[in-house]
Specification:
The chain has 182 residues and is an all-alpha fold. The chain contains nine helices and no strands. The protein has a single domain, classed as Tetracycline Repressor, domain 2, CATH 1.10.357. Helix 5 runs parallel beside helix 8 and helix 8 packs antiparallel against helix 9. One of its GO terms (molecular function) is DNA binding.
Length: 182
């Protein structure tokens, strides 16, 4: 069972992903989390601290989910494509709210001092982790290829969130991008 801090952060993510950054208040998080007023501010004294906490929690939850899709370490291009397709489908389907929260944070980082550094740090860790997997499947330039794949997936997911395609199948595009790089 999640501890109270995680409960607060998960409620903040849900609020951010369903109602956007304007709705993200300490009081709104307390209500959604079903906690007494003031609970969120006990853990996160400022809006900036709450936003940074959300980024950290998103990274934790994303890693947990990726492990489910990647079967720890894909050892072939085909296995990596399958894992990436599953992750994109999950991100734009069952996990759409959390994905929406992530993109709301991206926009918020452009106007909130310090948040860009927190998101940048999380992105660098993701790219390094992706580079390790790309090296396993034969990439000659895993660090730069991981940046390209990450950017492609971000764009793909963003477009599916904002202009949903009922026949969405990311397999061909992911296969093409991965094939061109490795």
């Amino acid at each position: 069972m999640a501890d109270k801090r995680e409960q607060v952060l998960d409620a903040a993510i849900a609020l951010l992903g369903t109602k956007g950054v304007r709705a993200l208040t300490h009081r709104g998080v307390d209500e959604l989390a079903g906690m007494p007023q003031g609970s969120t501010s006990n853990y996160f004294r400022s809006r900036g601290a709450l936003l940074e906490g959300i980024v950290t929690r998103l990274v934790e939850r994303d890693r947990e989910d990726w492990e489910k899709f990647a079967h720890l370490r894909p050892d072939s291009k085909h296995a990596l494509v399958d894992a990436l397709v599953a992750f994109v489908r999950f991100s734009t389907g069952p996990d759409r709210v959390r994905t929406g929260a992530r993109y709301a944070l991206f926009v918020e980082a452009s106007v909130t001092p310090g948040l860009d550094a927190k998101i940048g740090s999380a992105r660098r860790a993701l790219v390094e982790w992706g580079a390790d997997m790309l090296e396993l499947v034969g990439s000659k330039n895993p660090a730069s290829d991981a940046v390209v794949i990450t950017d492609y997936l971000d764009g793909l997911i963003l477009h599916q969130l904002t202009v949903p395609d009922l026949d969405f199948d990311p397999t061909a595009g992911i296969t093409a991008v991965l094939g061109a790089l490795t």
